[in-house]
């Protein structure tokens, strides 16, 4: 599942940009874990625009940030 559409939170991203810039822009715009988690799971490559980010999120079969967290012993 791709999560929530991140494009409304990426208006201030300076494209082309990588995952770190996407996370920075989304966090600054007030995105929640439903956006930040899937963005953080994206491959560390450059994205041309918000549509490219959304396409990558829809295609990403990686686990969300919550699925990959390790439980304390």
Automatic annotation (TrEMBL):
It comes from the Bacteria. Pfam families: DUF2795. This is DUF2795 domain-containing protein. It comes from Amycolatopsis umgeniensis.
């Amino acid at each position: 599942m791709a999560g929530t559409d991140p494009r409304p939170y990426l208006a201030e991203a300076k494209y082309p940009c990588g995952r770190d810039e996407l996370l920075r822009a989304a966090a600054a715009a007030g995105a929640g874990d439903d956006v930040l988690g899937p963005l953080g799971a994206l491959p560390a490559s450059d994205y041309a625009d918000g549509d490219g980010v959304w396409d990558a999120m829809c295609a990403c079969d990686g686990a969300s940030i919550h699925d990959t967290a390790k439980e304390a012993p």
